[in-house]
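Recap quiz, item 2
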Amino acid sequence: MFKKARQIFSVASYNFHQWRKNPRIIITFLLALILCFLLTDKAAGFAKEHGTSMQIVESFIWTFGDSNSILLSSLLLLLLFADMPFLSAGTPFYLMRINRRIWILGQALYIFLATGIYLLFTLVSTSLLCMTNSFSGNMWSKTAAILGYSGEGQAIALPALVKTLEMSKPFPCMATIFLLMLLYTLVMVFLMLFFNLWKGQIAGVISVFAFSVLGFLLNPENLQSLFHLPDELAYKARVWVGWLSPLNQATYHMHNFGYDRLPRLWQTYAIFGGLMLVLVALSLGAIRRYNFHFRGTEG
Amino acid sequence: MSAVIQLENLSKSFGEDMVLKHVSRDFEEGKIHGIVGNNGSGKTVMMKCVCGFLQPSQGRVFVNYKQVGKEVDFPENMGIIIETPGFLPNLSGLKNLELLASLQRRIHKEIIRQTIRRVGLDPDMKKPVGKYSLGMRQRLGIAQAIMEDPSLLVLDEPFNGLDKNGTGQMRTLIKDLREQGKTILLASHNQIDIDELCDTVCEMDAGVMTMIR
């Protein structure tokens, strides 16, 4: 058991060794920084305009409490995993010393850790970008209060909602959003891994595209017009979307805090966790029949 | 002599393209078995099937009496080189081999160092593998294949990138390994390597294997 755990860790660390001086990895993190800069600009600009300060993680909360930002960030992460299932000319030497199961579990561990590092980078970046005008206490700022209670947040498409302000505090809210993003992104990447192994790399890309498009198109407005729902039944479309769209499952305010039928947070965790387990199990099945083609070794 | 590698009606297709065509052959223990053939003849595909990297479309592969892909994912106690060996470019040769050895923890650091010396490299060299010449990388590849003292070696073009002196050293090393009772499957373009080293020789041509000697 200990030997297997060590081997799984070794396979994951082999992938991390390839990060050093790797232009693709550097570009991914640089683009993530630029994306954070662009996305936080709205909240930071609002605070500056009103001469108010922000809580240090609020920029992350208002940025990634929105489904479109989550979608953009998760798609950018795919650059990190563009070479999935991570076959290089050195892979055969590893495979001969382990087995297929250990190898795929090592890749799963790598995906989990790399995604965590990427999201942590995003969190730190958004906080650093706004740190000159922020404080660290665990309370909502005046900026948040104006955005939420005056309705100005909705007007400029920032998800600073009254229910977020009333039901949570900045640090627990940030932790929840971080976890939701992590789970959503992991489901997406494990989906890509499974299709890569089962049907090839093109199928992997198509699967991620379909997963993202599904989340993007399944929004309350589209459902309302598709089923010709009157405005008084718009909440139904919102509830359906909250349950059906993976992207909305990853959005903090699309959850039930005690007064509607949206999924509760624990239900979302269970759905994403279950999907992840199913996808890892399917990948373990697909790897048994997988043909390895290593870069630079074809003859 | 017993057959440590058995190919039973082995075929491999990629889409419509049949790369290996009903190959059946036994490779006996303690000998060097040469495989010759042009590029694209199916040598590497056959070797990848033996190693378990490719699943046969038809037929079976047995290594040490265990069916590859069914009883074992990859044959146990086997060292390999599949053409150009790949290593982590930012680490030294010794560090690369230590990482590989740490997967099974069968050997000590001193054995790794001895093996590196055996292929004509300096284990104390700090230079990262990314700055190695092709010949040095090939030597390191041979070192990783033999360091855990496997009974079976699958070497696909092991002399790629080696100069005349290096090729001579590696030929001597391979002969020594045969003297120690290892079974070696050796693919090469070079007829001299095959003539000098191999006990049996097969030719691959368009996926068909023919016994030459």
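Chain A touches chain B at residues 3, 6-7, 10, 14, 17-18, 20-21, 88-101, 289-292, 294-299 (CB under 8 Å).
Residues 2-289 of chain A form one domain.
End of item.
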